[in-house]
Amino acid sequence: MDLDRFTRQSETEWRVAPFGKMRVPAVIYATEDLIRDMDDKVFEQITNVAMLRGIQKAAFAMPDAHWGYGFPIGGVAAFDPDEGGVISAGGVGFDISCGMRSLHTGLTPDAIERHKSELADALYRSVPAGLGSTGKIHLDPLEMDAMLEGGARWAIERGYGRAEDLERIEEGGRMAGAEPGNVSDKAKKRQRKEMGTLGSGNHYLEVQRVTRILDQTSAAGFGLHEGDTLITIHCGSRGLGHQIGTEFLKKMAIAAAESGIELPDRELACAPINSPIGVLYLGAMRAAINCALANRQIITHLVRAAFARIFPDARLDLLYDVSHNTCKLEEHWLDGARKKLFVHRKGATRAFGPGHPELPESLRPIGQPVLIGGSMGTASYVLVGTSEGMGLAFGSACHGAGRRMSRHKAYKTWMGRQVIDELAQRGILIRSPSSRGVAEEAPGAYKEVSGVVDATDEAGLARKVARLEPVICIKG
Amino acid sequence: MKVMRAAHWEHFPHDADVGVRGIGPTKEAAFEQAALALTAAMTELSAVAPATAIEVRCSAPDDELLLVDWLNAIIYEMATRNMLFSRYQVTIADGELRATIWGEAVDVERHAPAVEAKGATLTGLEVDRRSQGGWCAQCVVDV
């Protein structure tokens, strides 16, 4: 991207003053190297978002921003419903509430190494992954609605997990305001056999080792030590979320045209929050958030069961569960006043700082854990939300590495088997139903996550706490 | 006089996902080819036997939204029937699309699907006549 299009505010903040129909500035947080590598589409999309009605402060892009659907992936934008603010299906994404959940194992590297292959096979057998895989839990209509209303709480009431898991999940495991009645029969049908499944693409289940502590105090507060082993689950609301995204993208595109909302780009399809479609979407999207929380809870249960057969004493307590595709009603300080805003985070992680009332008591003095996934075979990071970050992009940070190469090119560049063998030589076991899927997700197809995380830290959006490296990776 | 290539499909790059493009002498043919590109983003087309036929219908106020609807209708059938499709026959009249699609149940060993399609997007969305005749239908699919 051409740097001349920005005013550089600091080493990591790049600003575009409003021009044309932009209502607020656009701000990208990134190092010079990252911003040079970004697609021009990010500039186009983030300045388009800045034109939407009711937007507050600025349209933000995180250091891992790339070309998305209307909104860039890595985009953050907050809207005030009282100023005609909008909600956008593309600003949340198809995989509603896609997110990360990390669990402590309490196991030493030696213990894992002794059983690594057995553990990889057990996890692969226990957690359905990839297209065509179905879960063992099939929901009838009543249970489907109860799940959409109750999220992870519903799952725990049905025996998939422990009550204490809830305090380490955003929203206490249940998104309030979900309206299962706003979710179409088609979306529910798509989900009927998909509870407790990982999905495919960039979704994964990893066993990871803490290789470096970068902030001793926060790490101690999170219970992280060098050499610890964690499990991280990356997945979302499965077919139900995809179908809701699909249906509302079309509905919003048609409604915007009919009601004369001028959109800079059709894919920015959105509706006023206080409009019939806005309200319908909000209820359906919140139900999909509960679906994602329930899904990650069931997968946690499956992982615990697989671990228990090999390590009967491992408890697998939650570190945290955080989503990176959402729109949530939050209170933020803006020009000296407290405002209730609808904050879209598309491929961006909530990163609340210390003292935030949404955090459980055990985390409140420290700040919110921010879980950042790398690519298969490279590092992941745990960060912590900062007070400074609350005043930057509404308490938001990056979400991952971002692709460097298209799937098509990756498939032409690598053989799945070769990727698996090379990673095995480095001590990383891969289990996947698709060799082509592994090739498309090869580590070389992704940007280096460390650069993204360093920029996030330097910008003050969140602070680095620990670096993790993969030991086992189950890919869909 | 330029002779247009026979109907064909291709993928075009997108940062995170995949673009599907169908090209053909008619709008219907372009839609059929775009659907083949969708299947090819997931698995080898030649590995999917056109064994079972399913009827699909959809409608939209314009050609572009109709393409998105069409691809999403296929994604829905794939997801709920646990099938992959390798042959498509489309007719379009007055904004309504009717199609027969042929495929078979997913066989993870044989098809080894690389990704599952989540939904067709409005990104890179175009349905138009090409200057040398024929039609092009394309959009990005979230995988």
Q: For the terminal residues of chain A, how far apart are their CA atoms?
A: 33 Å
User: Given the structure, what is the number of helices of chain B?
Assistant: 3
Characterize the biggest β-sheet of chain A.
8 strands, mixed
- For the record, the count of structural domains of chain B works out to 1
**Alpha-beta classification of chain A:** alpha+beta
What characterizes the major β-sheet of chain B? 5 strands, antiparallel
Question: Can you name the CATH architecture of chain B?
Answer: 3-Layer(bab) Sandwich
Return the CATH topology of chain A. tRNA-splicing ligase RtcB
Strand residue percentage of chain A: 15-25%
CATH topology of chain B, anyone? Archease, Possible Chaperone, Chain: A, domain 1
Principal-axis shape of chain B equals globular
Annotated CATH architecture of chain A: Alpha-Beta Complex
Structure notes:
The complex is a heterodimer of chains A (476) and B (143). Chain A contains 14 helices and 19 strands. Chain A has 476 residues and is an alpha+beta fold. In chain A, strand 12 and strand 13 form a beta hairpin. In chain A, helix 4 packs antiparallel against helix 9 (276-310). The mean pLDDT of chain A is 95. Chain B has a single domain (11-142), classed as Archease, Possible Chaperone, Chain: A, domain 1 (3-Layer(bab) Sandwich), CATH 3.55.10.10. Chain B contains three helices and eight strands. Chain B is an alpha+beta fold. The chains are: A alpha+beta (476), B alpha+beta (143). Chains A and B meet through strand 4, helix 6, helix 8, helix 11 and helix 13 of A and helix 2 and strand 6 of B.
